[in-house]
Amino acid sequence: MAQRDELERLKALEDRIAKAKAAINPPRATQDHHSMAQVGWRMVIELVSGLGIGAGIGYGLDVLLDTRPFLLVLFTLLGFAAGVKTMLRSARALQAQAENTAPHDTGAKKGDKTSGG
């Protein structure tokens, strides 16, 4: 009997804590123009950093080995490929995250005449 009362009190306390947390931290908007700008800048930075790192490595090796533009061009292209690969990986991760946070049931079902599908 006492154990049941304790469980009920704990459940009531958990409910109050959840309500307090919900009041303090309102749900975040799913998408706004600032978050899209951040995503865009992230993609640009990933691409440019790949190019820069590749060019830096290529130039350094060219200076050390005295093979001027060959390694610079080669590593710049490799840096570009690495930047594009990183950019695509980030885009896939963001897309998967967006699909997981999107509402599952919007009211329109596949094959419904009003949804166009």
Automatic annotation (TrEMBL):
Residues 96-117 are annotated as: Disordered. A possible function for this protein is to guide the assembly of the membrane sector of the ATPase enzyme complex. Belongs to the bacterial AtpI family. The chain crosses the membrane at residues 43-61, 67-84. The lineage of its organism: Bacteria, Pseudomonadati, Pseudomonadota, Alphaproteobacteria, Rhodobacterales. This is ATP synthase protein I. InterPro entries: Atp1_alphaprobac, ATPase_put. Residues 106-117 have a biased composition (Basic and acidic residues). It holds the Pfam family ATPase_gene1. It comes from Roseinatronobacter alkalisoli. Keywords: Hydrogen ion transport, Ion transport, Membrane, Transmembrane, Transmembrane helix, Transport.
